[in-house]
Amino acid sequence: MIRKGFIMSVYPDCHEEYEKRHNEIWPEMVEMLRAHGAHSYSIFLEPATSKLFGYLEIADEALWSKSAETAICRKWWDYMGDIMETNPDNSPVVTELVEVFHLD
């Protein structure tokens, strides 16, 4: 299993809306994530800085990378684009983290 950690940013006045949208995640989005190998996916918010920490386990990096090409992923990005920092294509601005320690 490959563990991935990353940082994103939500706008300070959108914390509740970000959580609401994820609590109501579309079933087809969940299906796509699982179909592309996602396991144990969590996102945490640091309210003071509006930083989001994402943690995800995947089985295959190549399969996971194809998730960004799906229509449902693009639709989700468009849906979330008004409440978080995004790139010109509405994908979230993501900083990948390097794992430096793990304990099973």
Automatic annotation (TrEMBL):
According to the UniProt record, one GO cellular component term is:
cytoplasm
Instruction: Note the InterPro entries from the entry.
Output: Dimeric_a/b-barrel, L-rhamnose_mutarotase, Rham/fucose_mutarotase
Cite the GO molecular-function annotations of the record. Answer: L-rhamnose mutarotase activity
Q: Does the keyword Isomerase apply?
A: yes
Q: Any idea of its EC number?
A: 5.1.3.32
Signal sequence residues: none
Asked if the record carries the keyword Cytoplasm, the reply is: yes
SUPFAM superfamilies according to UniProt:
Dimeric alpha+beta barrel (SSF54909)
The protein's matches in NCBIfam families, at most eight in alphabetical order, are given as:
YiiL_rotase
What is this protein called in UniProt? L-rhamnose mutarotase
